[in-house]
Write a structure and sequence with these properties.
This is Transcriptional regulator. With 259 residues, the protein is mainly alpha-helical. It has 14 helices and no strands. Helix 7 packs antiparallel against helix 8, helix 8 packs antiparallel against helix 9 and helix 10 packs antiparallel against helix 11.
Length: 259
Amino acid sequence: MRDAGAKDRRDCWAVSARTHHLAATTLAKVGESDVSWLAAERAMRAADESDDPLVLASAARSGTHALLANGRYEAAMELGNTTATWLASQVAESDPSALSLLGMIHLRAAVAAARHQDRLTAARLLNHAEQLADDLGSDENYWQTGFGPTNVILHRLSIELDLDNVSYVVENGRIDVDHMPQERSVSHRIDYSRALSLAGRGDEAFTELRTAERTAPQLVRNNPRVRETLRDLIKQSPVSGGSRSSEVFVMAQRCRAVQ
């Protein structure tokens, strides 16, 4: 009975860790960076009590999201390195959950390296993630990671955008993402729209944003990068106006990009 009670407590901590993980990642995506970090800390504290390395790795993933949102790029990379040690034995046994969680941790750490303008580290981490995706073999969704070969490609595009390689993203960004989890497909459309806007291809950029908004309105309307792109599209619109410029302005109002 005592062992059963201990297991129940660990299971409860695991549920708490997962709940706070979801809160942390959602808050990071809508620009609530400070609160996101509080939720991530609670996720990792609960995960530690669960005594499950997979739960701990999942919570650490939320930590990388929160650290990225707060601009703490070196800390995000350090957390990624630490998480790799927690999952070493499961990865060695080709546990698909461990492969997926570590793959996503590497991808988030690669984004942190890119935002820190460390191209070599970003490339190294992307290569690690690519190897794990190859070992997994296909696009899967273990632990709600959406990890697999396609997600590696999408992160590579996002990282090139962070490194100001706009032409690469424009040339390679038309990827089929309809089979991906909604959050991942929408994030890609937002990145691709940003690149198209920076390349002066406003009509295509706006089309991507409208598609993203139809898919997940709240993710789009609360995204800082969307607001930045919409402001650029307003500047690019003809002074005389027209249907597209009106639609852009209306969407900008919905997304609080303009008053």
